[in-house]
Amino acid sequence: MRDAASDLARWIPRLLSAWRAGRRGRRRGPRPPPDRLLPDELREVASGVERLSRGLTRERELAGARYLDDERLLGAYLLFYWPVSYLQARGTLSELPRRPGRVLDLGSGPGPLAFAALDAGAREAIACDRSARALAAARSLAAEAGEPLATREWNPARRRPLGEIAAGEKFDLVCLGHVLNELFQGPEAAERRAALLEEAAALLAPGGTVLVIEPALRETSRALLAVRDLLVARGHPVRAPCLFRGPCPALAREGDWCHAERPIDPPPLVAEIGRRAGLRKEAVKMSYLALLPRGEPWPDPPAAAGRIFRIVSEPLPSKGRLRYMGCGPDGRMGLALQEKHLAPGNRPFERLLRGDLVEVTGTEPRGDGLRLGESSLVRVLARAGQPPPGSG
């Protein structure tokens, strides 16, 4: 994510400028630095980040609330969660086989996904949200950066068809970042969320993708997987991250879920806010789903002589052996290798990361998965955040 990090660095002064413009009148004195916070500013932003963290990832009382209409919470979002969401989007957009031309960002807030798509090569983007304050911030950022961003009001509670919001237009990418989990609570939530994504898929141009990014929490991840299963059963293929075409095997056990992780070197401003708020950001974590319209073919897995897996866990503690969970065309299973059997051909196994796409040969069934040996071969087909070979 090196290019994404350098692109994000250019956004930091713009985000600071937009935030300060929204709080004018609260500070007098010398002009503050364009790339860092003054002590009183840091206290204010860190306090807002703590409130957002509690309300969205712990007690979750803010999930579905209009928190971006609150000036202080919007400011905290701009300076901490906007950069995080931007990096999440860049990491998932990199797995798509082509650059999106036209983008519709639903539940955009101040636009981190829309701007990530533009920086990744999109020609134009439309940010849609119910918060006028958040959309105003997005327009301010677009004006300062010279980005081709338009905004439209979208409030899913009003049940206005997406076709009316889109005005008959077609898009190469429709994205929803940290939105779906906040909509349609209750026993019918999965059905209503699936219906919304089907509406979104109907807005796609040929070859387009619906991209959903959600928090990496167990609850929100499993909720997204339940929606995935409904859509797969209705004929929607998954472009990423899934290789398995049936019901998600992570839902078979209550304690399992699936999320991605990308190591990052956060901008100094984000790192400083995170330290003050007690939130470390050495990696971005998210659950995500790249969905195709109903009836399109599933993307073919990369050609390989062995078995293909996406690594879906951290290294799992196990005395004397290396172990991961992998999920591939045959389902989810453990992959294990005794450390004493490490050899040149299987050496990549000890450096795998969550999200890597790997080919494994020379295995035998053992316990809940496969055992690798000294003669096994392990080849990394794509690192996390990269498209599979041949997908372009």
The count of domains is: 2
Kindly report how far apart the N and C termini lie. Answer: 19 Å
Question: What is the radius of gyration?
Answer: 21 Å
Query: How do the helices and strands follow one another from N- to C-terminus?
Result: HHHEHEHEHEHEHEEHEEEEEE
CATH architecture of the largest domain: 3-Layer(aba) Sandwich
- CATH fold descriptor of the largest domain: Rossmann fold
For the sheet with most strands, the description reads: 8 strands, mixed
Please give the count of helices.
Answer: 9
CATH H level of the largest domain: which superfamily? Answer: Vaccinia Virus protein VP39
Uncertain parts: none
Structural class: alpha/beta
Q: What does the overall shape look like?
A: globular
Instruction: Write down the overall mean pLDDT.
Output: 92
Helix-residue proportion: 25-40%
- CATH uppermost class of the largest domain: Alpha Beta
Brief write-up:
The chain has 392 residues and is an alpha/beta fold.
Description of the structure:
The structure is a single chain. α7 links the parallel β4 and β5 (204-214). The chain has helices at 2-22, 39-58, 71-93, 112-119, 132-145, 162-166, 189-201, 218-233, 268-277; strands at residues 102-106, 124-129, 149-153, 171-177, 204-214, 238-240, 260-263, 283-291, 307-311, 321-328, 331-338, 357-366, 369-382. With 392 residues, it is an alpha/beta fold. It folds into two domains: 2-291, Vaccinia Virus protein VP39 (Rossmann fold), CATH 3.40.50.150; 307-382, OB fold (Dihydrolipoamide Acetyltransferase, E2P). α1 runs antiparallel to α3 and α7 crosses α8. The strands form two sheets. Strands 1, 2, 3, 4, 5, 6, 7 and 8 form an eight-stranded mixed β-sheet that branches. The longest helix is centred in the N-terminal third of the chain and has 23 residues, at 71-93. The two termini are 19 Å apart.
